[in-house]
Design goal:
The chain is an alpha+beta fold and 185 residues long. The protein has a single domain, classed as 3-Layer(aba) Sandwich (Peroxisomal Thiolase, Chain A, domain 1), CATH 3.40.47. The protein has six helices and six strands. Strands 1-6-5-4 form a four-stranded mixed sheet, sandwiched between helices. The chain has a two-stranded antiparallel sheet with strand order 2-3. The longest helix has 20 residues. The N terminus is likely disordered. InterPro entries: 3-ktacl-CoA_syn (IPR012392), ACP_syn_III_C (IPR013747), FAE1_typ3_polyketide_synth (IPR013601), Thiolase-like (IPR016039). Its EC number is 2.3.1.199. GO terms for molecular function: fatty acid elongase activity. Belongs to the thiolase-like superfamily. Chalcone/stilbene synthases family. One of its GO terms (cellular component) is membrane.
């Protein structure tokens, strides 16, 4: 489970049939960093079983990669008022977390586990309705890896919450450590 196929096209003739338009893609891969590479790693244990080892540094490494990724996508998606607040925070050396709810209507957060969803929803100050698709995907399908945002998007559609012009932020995490953010309309 977890595999998903999406038909993508760059032909102008297909644009009329498309449900969504991919506006921005930001991808960060830290696999060259040994600590990041080993934070989620498949290996053989002493009994010969194939296991997934998760480093105790996983959340710190994922957080750093996600922060780098968000810093890259923020100027592309945030409204001017949030960009100004963010810039002032940087100048004054104060931490300001932009309100991405002003940029996106829907959030599809990687359903890698309850802790991932909780932490991202807390950091992004998202209300329960905004993280419900992620929670339900995790509940119904488990960790479907980086394809979970597509299942979450399907959940939003099935609930009738998706409207024409709504912006969606798909946040994916993968081993290596890889972070992908997509902004879709």
């Amino acid at each position: 489970m977890g595999g998903i196929t999406i038909l993508l096209s760059n032909k102008r003739s297909d644009s009329g049939r498309a449900k969504y338009e991919l506006v921005h893609v930001v991808r960060t891969n830290h696999a060259a960093n040994d600590e990041a590479y080993r934070c989620a790693y498949q290996e053989e244990d002493v009994e010969g079983n194939i296991v997934i080892s998760l480093s105790k540094n996983l959340t710190a490494i994922a957080g750093a990669a996600l922060k780098e990724n968000i810093t890259t996508i923020a100027p592309l998606v945030l409204p001017p008022s949030e960009l100004l607040r963010w810039a002032l925070g940087c100048i004054m050396k104060k931490t300001y977390t932009p309100d991405f709810r002003k940029a996106f209507k829907h959030f599809c957060i990687h359903a890698g586990g309850r802790a991932v969803i909780e932490e991202l929803s807390k950091k992004l100050k998202l209300m329960e309705e905004r993280v419900e698709p992620s929670r339900m995907t995790l509940h119904r399908l488990g960790n479907t890896s980086s394809s979970s945002p597509w299942y979450e998007l399907s959940y939003v559609e099935a609930k009738g919450r998706m409207k024409k012009g709504d912006r969606v932020w798909k946040i994916r995490l993968g081993s290596g450590l890889e972070v992908g953010l997509n902004a879709t309309t």
